[in-house]
Design brief:
There is one protein chain. By secondary structure, the chain is an alpha/beta fold. Helices cover about 30% and strands about 15% of the residues. It has helices at about 10-20, 80-90, 95-105, 115-130, 185-190, 195-205, and strands spanning about 1-5, 25-30, 40-45, 50-55, 55-60, 70, 135. The longest helix has 16 residues, at about 115-130. The two termini are about 15 Å apart. About 30% of the residues are buried.
Length: about 210
Amino acid sequence: MLLASAYAPPVSYFAHLFAAQGSVVQIEFCEHFVRQSYRNRCRILTPQGVMSLSIPLEHDKSGRQLFGEIRISEHGNWRHLHRQALVSAYGRTPFFEYYWDDLSPLYEPDEPLIANFNLRYTRTLLALLDLDVQLEPTHSFLPPQPNHDLRYNITPKQIPDAMLFAPYYQLFSGRQSFVPDLSVLDLLFNMGPESILKLQEVAANFQIL
């Protein structure tokens, strides 16, 4: 399977990783940056509705920079803002304190490249979800891979039909209807160890098991 790099990826992304357990999944490092994608943003749920958290990047002027070479910009204090947004949105969820100590250190400024930051973040989430998947970055741009190429399929521009998802408890569900395909952080903080059962349901609904 071939996936794009993603920041705190959505539930649909992790449903594919659930289906790929026991195998190696390649993460594309050698493409050119795709704007308005999950490569540097994620969607979380707040009392006011869905919020998009975006990591600022430093692009060179050539426009030919490979994704694996793009550096994170430290302007705007984004690390602190993202931390605070997650605490505000999920601090009262049932499993926030159980997982936050593993996730909070990821926001320390010790990784300058967005591709490496995302890879470390996703590997941490895989461990917390107890998913047996090995992620490996690509070393050259791969041509389209029949049946297993999802680099451009999972995008915030086109959220899958809500009917494909397995609704779960969300902290602010009393104020609004279930919101599908948020960052898997939303599922993890709300459902804890039962998250893997929801991923299994979504994978089955997507017919990828």
